[in-house]
Write a structure and sequence with these properties.
It comes from Micromonospora andamanensis. InterPro entries: YjbR/MT2646/Rv2570-like. This is MmcQ/YjbR family DNA-binding protein. The radius of gyration is 14 Å and the shape is globular. The chain has a single domain (4-41, 54-117), classed as Alpha-Beta Complex (Aspartate Aminotransferase, domain 1), CATH 3.90.1150. It is 36% helix and 25% strand. 25% of the residues are buried. It has a six-stranded antiparallel sheet. By secondary structure, it is of the alpha+beta class. The chain has helices spanning 4-12, 61-70, 96-110, 113-125; strands spanning 17-19, 26-29, 32-40, 48-57, 75-76, 86-90. Strand 3 and strand 4 form a beta hairpin. It starts with a helix and ends in a 5-residue tail after the last helix.
Length: 130
C-alpha cells in the first residue's frame, strides 16, 4: 500500500523533478506534469484535492486503455480525462514498487530527450537498469 508520502519521495528522487505549490502534490519535469493529486469535481460541490489518488501521465490512449481494462481495481478515469493520456491510480491499492515504476515511466514520457540520460545515469549509480 502506497500513500502521498511515497509519491513525493519517488517523484523527488527523479532527476530535475520539482514539486509545485498545491493543496496536495504536483510534480513536474521541464514544466510538464507527470504525477499529481486527483482534483475530484462533483456537480454542485467544490473541488476536492484527493491525495489518496494520483493522476499519472501514461503516454498514449492504448496504454491508458490497457491499464484501465487490465487492472480496474487499481486504475480508473473520469469523463474529464477523455482523450487525455492520463489515468488515476488508487494509492491504497498499489504497492510502492509498482508506484515507483509508474511514476518513473510517467517522468520518462514527459522529460525532454536531453534529460533522459540523467535518469539512466542515476539508475546505473544505484545499480538498477532503465
Amino acid at each position: 500500500m502506497a500513500d502521498a508520502t511515497d509519491v513525493r519521495r519517488l517523484a523527488l528522487a527523479l532527476p530535475h523533478a520539482v514539486e509545485i505549490d498545491s493543496h496536495g502534490f504536483d510534480f513536474r519535469v521541464a514544466d510538464k506534469g507527470f504525477v499529481w493529486s486527483y482534483p475530484e469535481r462533483r456537480p454542485g460541490r467544490p473541488r476536492v484535492i484527493r491525495t489518496d489518488i494520483a493522476v499519472l501521465y501514461v503516454g498514449d490512449e492504448a496504454e491508458k486503455q490497457a491499464l484501465l481494462l487490465g487492472e480496474p481495481d487499481l486504475f480508473f478515469t473520469t469523463s474529464a480525462y477523455d482523450g487525455l493520456a492520463l489515468v488515476m491510480v488508487r494509492l491504497s491499492a498499489v504497492t510502492v514498487d509498482r508506484l515507483d515504476e509508474l511514476v518513473t515511466d510517467a517522468w520518462r514520457m514527459r522529460a525532454p530527450d536531453h534529460l533522459l540520460a540523467d535518469l539512466d545515469k542515476d539508475l546505473a549509480g544505484r545499480g538498477m537498469s532503465s
